[in-house]
Structure formats: structure tokens, C-alpha cells
Amino acid sequence: MLVIGHRGAPALAPENTIPSFMRAIELGVDYIEFDVRASKDGRLVIMHDNTVNRTTSAGGLVSSYSLTLLRKLDAGGWFGEEFKNVRIPTVEEVLRLAKGKTAVAIHIKQEGIEDEVLNMVREFKMIHDCMILAPLTISRKVKLSEPRIPIQADLPEINPRDAIDMLAENLVDIASIHIKKLSKGLVRLCHRSGLLVNVWDVDKPEQVKECEESDVDFITTNDPKTVLETLRNLLVRN
């Protein structure tokens, strides 16, 4: 199983910030995952929510701020004093940090920025060190634009067979399933249909073991330290 650091290592540092990504890389994750939105002036920045309220010192829509103003916000103080005045990073900064150290899982959070995201990945020559997380409304377009990049999307909460067919129709390669929905049967069904499987949020040792027993391909975690230690221990026992 490959380990994806969800927004870096948010159990240890403020999510979607350089310290969080650095910690995840130091721990040895296979991918760092991050969320991409556009600022008012069209710059690609890292932010999960459509507002800055939850993870910065300010409020309002990400799209209402220019990059210059976004960069003035404190994106770490909410997590702890040692992270005070950590800034919102750009996609360029994170790709530069990750290149040669880990792969990236880029979550496109809004439509209309996908071409620019792909161009930046090409510019950094990270096509083969990347996966894209995309809503089904743009997953097909992204895959047709860059067939070399695997696409991940959430498995719709409908009949599993219909959900898998929906992912296949939209050229998705990896089905993402919440840990609470995980079953060996569902993983087998995905695999038989040609889909790899990612499971999130996997943060506890018993959840890691459940994923291993279910033959999951990727684990997405908020706590890569715990997950990687658990995987090492399982490897020793086996």
C-alpha cells in the first residue's frame, strides 16, 4: 500500500502549509495531497475550503483575495504558536518542494483551473510523479488532456455497481472510499472492474490493518507518522 499524506501531515502541523508538507516528506510518505483553488487574480494557491475562515487569521472567500493579500494572512497560528505567520503556499512552491522527494496528489477544488494545474505539472516534469483528484464534472476532461496522469475520485454513494460504472465512464482510475464504507467485497468489485482503491481517513493502527486485509492500494491519512509506523510493524510481523 502507498501512503498519501492528506494535506501533508495535519496531525503534526497546520494543514496545506509548507511545514505540514515538509513533515510528511520527512516521515516518508509516497504522496503529499493538497487542495488547489484560484485567487482573485487567477494564481493557484493551496486551500481546502472555499473561504479562508477556518485556517487563517481572516475571513471571506479565497476568490475574493489577490495572491498578495492571501500571502499576508496567518495560516498557521490557529494550530499552534510555533506556526504563527506561516503563509498560504502556491502550487509552484509545493511542486518545487516535492520534486525529487515525493509524488503529489493534487486535488482540484474548482472547475476552470484544471488546464493551468496540468501545465504546471508538465513544467516541473512531474507527470509520472502525480495523480489528480477531481470531481466527476471534470475528471474526463483532465484524463483526455493528460492520459499519463491517474485520476482519483470519490466512489458515489449509490449502488456499488452503478457507482463503479459511473467512475469508469468518467475515465477515473482510482476509486476513493471512506474508511467507514470499506469492505473486502467492495475492494474486490473495484479491482475486477479495473479500478485501484484509495481509502481515507486512515489514522488508526486498526484501520491500517483493515486496509491491508482488504488489499487496498492507497491509504490517505492525516497522521502519516502513525500509519507508517503501523505498516512497518505489520511488515516485521509478516
CATH class equals Alpha Beta
Measured as a percent range, the helix fraction is: 25-40%
CATH superfamily: Phosphatidylinositol (PI) phosphodiesterase
Round the Cα radius of gyration to an integer and report it.
Answer: 18 Å
Distance between the termini: 15 Å
Account of the protein in words:
With 238 residues, this protein is an alpha/beta fold. The chain has one domain (2-237): Phosphatidylinositol (PI) phosphodiesterase (TIM Barrel). Helices cover 35% and strands 18% of the residues. The chain contains 9 helices and 9 strands. It has an 8-stranded parallel β-barrel, surrounded by 6 helices. Helix 4 (114-123) links the parallel strand 4 and strand 5. Helix 1 (18-27) runs parallel beside helix 3 (91-98). The protein starts with a strand and ends with a helix.
Offer a quick outline of the entry.
By secondary structure, the protein is of the alpha/beta class.
Task: Give the SSE layout.
Blueprint: E1 2-6, H1 18-27, E2 31-38, E3 44-46, H2 67-70, H3 91-98, E4 103-108, H4 114-123, E5 130-133, H5 136-145, E6 151-154, H6 160-169, E7 174-178, H7 184-192, E8 196-200, H8 205-213, E9 218-221, H9 224-237
Parallel strand pairs: 1-2, 1-9, 2-4, 4-5, 5-6, 6-7, 7-8, 8-9
Antiparallel strand pairs: 2-3
Helix pairs in contact: 1-3
Could you list some keywords that capture this structure?
eight-stranded parallel β-barrel; alpha/beta; TIM Barrel; 9 strands; 238 residues
